[in-house]
Amino acid sequence: MCAALPVAVALGAAPASAAQDPSNLAFVDAVGTQQVIDWARRTVGRALTYEYRNLDDLERFVADIGTPAYIDRLDAQLDQTRTTLTRQKVVVTVRVVGVGVRDLRAEAAQLLVYWDQTRTRGDVDQTETTGSASIVEIRMVDGKWKLDGVTPV
Amino acid sequence: MVVLGALSGVLVAAGVVALLFLPGAGHGMSGDSGAGSPSASATATVGASVAATRDEARRAAEDIAVVLATLDAAGLDAGLDRWEQVSTAPLLDTLRERRADVADDTREAGTTTTAVVSSAAVSRLTADSADVLVVLQVTVDSKETDPVVDTRREVLTVVRADGGWRASTLTVQDPG
């Protein structure tokens, strides 16, 4: 059985009609929209990339870019999977290949992110590349965007 | 999945330069009206217009993506006509060039393909065009095999045309 670092689940369900909400600032605030797109391209791939030999690197990065709730969920997931990831010598590399903005507010945003993931299991020398699409939720904390949740579509 | 493969093959074989992803520059679609002191009502009007365009483009892209992922071997002409009705150049040119091949392949496979949108979001927006990410759940059904369900990541460019919106490009975002 392949162990995988679970993707953090969003704290709350996305509003079904977010895109039709008149207070949705996506593309109305052109600068803010570009900022969240750039943030996602820089950050999401790195936040989902990890190597069994240095999971602490992932924790340190997420401690800097994640909300407290996201950090707690990641820590809990690593507690459950660290041993298996290490035994299986798992290396995961994620590259963001598309970002759309579903909803943008002053304090929160919801993005649709396409990424490609290459996962290598070193104990059996297997590598697989897959494509994913997820709803990524971010929140403004102390003037900075922070990752709050990732939910596969 | 003959139909899905056929549409993707149509795009690749014709060498269509598909827009994989454009950064959401949003140029020309800001709620800020530039130099001077715009009135609050003017700014709000521009903002409402941008929001309306954004939502129109997204809904149009969702509808078009479903149309372009739908084809029934029992109703090929109607289905392929519908593909052309929701498209414009260069995608329309490609669809017309490959229409006969797509029809032959689908008729031979005897498949029915349908799709449902899982999620969508705009990645770039101007007054007259948008790039939209659309995630589809596509079901291919045939008499000989059980239905196959697949998730497709697509990026459509939709442009204003003939009083509505049409797709000028469609890219299936395969991994790798």
CA-based shape of chain A? globular
What is the 3D shape of chain B?
elongated
Q: Estimate the helix proportion of chain B, in percent.
A: 25-40%
Assembly state (oligomeric): heterodimer
Low-confidence stretches of chain B: 1-6, 8-34
N- and C-termini, Cα separation of chain B: 20 Å
Task: Report Rg of chain B.
Answer: 18 Å
Tell me the strand order in the biggest sheet of chain A.
1-2-3-4-5
Description:
The complex is a heterodimer of chains A (153) and B (176). The radius of gyration of chain A is 16 Å and the shape is globular. In chain A, 33% of the residues lie in helices and 37% in strands. The relative contact order of chain A is 0.23. In chain A, strands 1-2-3-4-5 form a five-stranded antiparallel β-sheet. By secondary structure, chain A is of the alpha+beta class. Chain A has three helices and five strands, in the order αβααββββ. About 8% of the residues of chain A have low confidence. In chain A, helix 1 packs antiparallel against helix 2 and helix 2 packs antiparallel against helix 3. Chain B has 176 residues and is of the alpha+beta class. Chain B has four helices and five strands. In chain B, strands 1-2-3-4-5 form a five-stranded antiparallel β-sheet, sandwiched between helices. In chain B, a hairpin with a 6-residue loop joins strand 3 and strand 4. In chain B, helix 3 runs antiparallel to helix 4. The chains are: A alpha+beta (153), B alpha+beta (176). At the A-B interface, helix 1, strand 2, strand 3 and strand 4 of A face helix 2, strand 2, strand 3 and strand 4 of B.
